[in-house]
């Protein structure tokens, strides 16, 4: 019955057994080899997607650059109307798309739906934004002069996304980029190619219904080699890349070598600080969801819990006993809390990390392990583990994309906890659980958390689209989504207009002829 429902969803999303992985809008093609997408849920083949060859990529770039010439001339609120229609289509297809996300990536159905909801939310945000792409006006130092700034579309935006948010990350970028007047070329993760084709099918319908030029939304598919076609291409002024720090360092250098712009959303190593004034019940819920939700495969997953020594045992016991309640299994079954990891490589990394944590002296509080047998045929299901560790362990310093929670102790003042929290190379999400105003404000101050996201009495995991999303240090410094994150998708121009018959120079410089 479950499979039937999946097939129904695939049909509603216009997916076939073999899908063209390259699309310029109305034209679909793909002459490269095919990638097979297997579900981590049950190991079944979902479908195949053709990859993008060099020649395919040239076609895409031609379609995109030519579409840009028209799209940039359409008034921004009219572009917003197209994004509004896209949001409407997403509302109609929320269930099948949410189901595909769950089935291809392995997150729970609820989270799959949540991801589509984020796409809808960013569309709504972008529609409003399409009337608010404001620049400032300034007072000129010269008489009879007016000075202002305006934001113009940038061009072709390249989007490279990770497997763990196979649809939302694209929408965060593309909905804003479109209202800004850009056209987009998207390379989804090679681990979730069907999600990419499904999204492209949806937007193509909207573009066709509005008789818009093809190339406003393009899709390419394949691994890093296809990604490199974008990072090295001068016709792409901005590359937005989401994924590992390892990938970000390569992409950043390739784009910088041609003085392009990159927007990087890379790995996190997120911690919750638990002070003596914390609400323990809230802490347990926040920490457990943060650590095991999406099987620990969120960039904002809680990886470290930094607990004050005075409440250490109490918190530790509460978390350990919460872990005993966790049900692991098919994420489409809503009674399960934890689904599978993305693939067997991820399982190997999880096992290696646990082994290393033990080797470095970590004490296992909740034993991990790979599950087998009924319901676990895909071999991707693992038990969430908790390790008592030290922040200086090499493995604690790394982001392992799996449900492993490291519990660390601090003593004395909250400053000591903040030092541990900041004592890693990543800087994405952070949280403090406290009812103490002084501790909370210290944590949020300039000498507090060094992350792009800092929460009080909320876990590290998940974020609303209204705020700018991203992190510091090796997380890459990029910001996406709300606030003024749209500015990176546009080029700023300063304009000075002289409405007199004189030509005074700036800084009072005299130049008489
Ligand atoms: P990954 O780095 O393996 O792959 C991400 C994407 O980059 C894929 O599409 C891949 O094909 C592409 N890629 C890899 N090497 C490339 C290269 N040299 N040139 C061009 N493209 C290249 O990451 P993943 O395993 O898919 O995702 C997990 C990682 O993503 C985690 O580190 C996670 O924290 C991070 N992530 C970060 C955010 C954020 O917003 N900060 C959001 C989601 C995921």
From TrEMBL:
- Which is one GO molecular function term here? aldehyde dehydrogenase (NAD+) activity
Active site, UniProt feature: 265
- PANTHER family attached here? ALPHA-AMINOADIPIC SEMIALDEHYDE DEHYDROGENASE
Family to which the UniProt record says this protein belongs: Belongs to the aldehyde dehydrogenase family.
Q: Which residues are in the Aldehyde dehydrogenase domain?
A: 32-494
Q: What is the name of this protein?
A: aldehyde dehydrogenase (NAD(+))
Domain of life of the organism in this record? Bacteria
EC number from the UniProt entry = 1.2.1.3
Question: Which keywords label this protein?
Answer: NAD, Oxidoreductase
Alphabetized InterPro entries for the sequence? Ald_DH/histidinol_DH, Ald_DH_C, Ald_DH_CS_GLU, Ald_DH_N, Aldehyde_DH_dom, ALDH7A1-like
CDD domains per record: ALDH_F7_AASADH (cd07130)
What is its quaternary makeup?
Homotetramer.
Q: Pfam families from the entry?
A: Aldedh (PF00171)
Q: What class of enzyme is it?
A: oxidoreductase
């Amino acid at each position: 019955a479950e499979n039937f429902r999946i097939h129904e969803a695939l049909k509603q999303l216009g997916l076939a057994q073999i899908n063209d992985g390259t699309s310029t809008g109305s034209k679909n093609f793909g002459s490269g080899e095919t990638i097979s997408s297997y579900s981590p849920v049950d190991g079944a083949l979902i479908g195949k997607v053709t990859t993008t060859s060099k020649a395919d990529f040239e076609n895409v770039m031609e379609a995109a650059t030519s579409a840009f010439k028209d799209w940039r001339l359409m008034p921004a609120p009219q572009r917003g109307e197209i994004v509004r229609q896209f949001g409407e289509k997403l509302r109609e297809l929320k269930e099948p798309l949410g189901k595909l996300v769950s089935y291809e990536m392995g997150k729970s159905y609820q989270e799959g739906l949540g991801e589509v909801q984020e796409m809808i939310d960013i569309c709504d945000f972008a529609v409003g934004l399409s009337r608010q792409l404001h620049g400032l006006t300034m007072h000129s130092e010269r008489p009879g002069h007016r000075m202002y700034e305006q934001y113009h579309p940038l061009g072709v935006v390249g989007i490279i996304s990770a497997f763990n948010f196979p649809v939302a990350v694209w929408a965060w970028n593309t909905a804003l980029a479109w209202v800004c007047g850009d056209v987009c070329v998207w390379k989804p993760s090679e681990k979730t190619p069907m999600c990419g084709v499904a999204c492209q099918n949806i937007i193509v319908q909207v573009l066709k219904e509005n008789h818009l030029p093809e190339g406003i939304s393009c899709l390419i598919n394949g691994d890093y080699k296809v990604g490199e076609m974008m990072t090295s291409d001068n016709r792409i002024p901005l590359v937005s890349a989401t994924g590992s720090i390892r990938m970000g360092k390569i992409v950043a250098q390739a784009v910088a070598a041609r003085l392009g712009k990159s927007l990087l959303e890379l790995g996190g190593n997120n911690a919750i600080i638990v002070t003596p004034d914390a609400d323990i019940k809230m802490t347990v819920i926040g920490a457990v969801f943060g650590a095991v939700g999406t099987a620990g495969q969120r960039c904002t997953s809680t990886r470290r819990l930094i607990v004050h020594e005075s409440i250490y045992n109490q918190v530790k016991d509460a978390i350990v006993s919460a872990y005993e309640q966790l049900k692991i299994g098919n994420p489409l079954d809503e009674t399960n809390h934890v689904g599978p990891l993305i693939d067997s490589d991820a399982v190997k990394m999880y096992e290696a990390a646990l082994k290393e944590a033990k080797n470095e002296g970590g004490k296992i509080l909740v034993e991990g392990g790979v599950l087998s047998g009924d319901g676990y045929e895909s071999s991707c299901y693992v038990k969430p583990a908790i390790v008592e560790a030290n922040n200086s362990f090499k493995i604690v310093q790394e982001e392992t994309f799996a449900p492993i929670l490291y519990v660390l102790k601090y003593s004395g003042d909250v400053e000591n906890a903040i030092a541990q929290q900041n004592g890693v190379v990543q800087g994405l999400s952070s949280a403090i659980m406290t009812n103490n105003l002084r501790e909370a404000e210290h944590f949020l101050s300039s000498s507090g958390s060094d992350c792009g996201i800092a929460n009080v009495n909320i876990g590290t995991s998940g974020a609303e689209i209204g705020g700018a999303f991203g992190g510091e240090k090796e997380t890459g410094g990029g910001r996406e989504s709300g606030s003024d994150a749209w500015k990176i998708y546009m080029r700023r121009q300063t304009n000075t207009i002289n409405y007199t018959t004189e030509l005074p120079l700036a800084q009072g410089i005299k130049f008489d002829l």
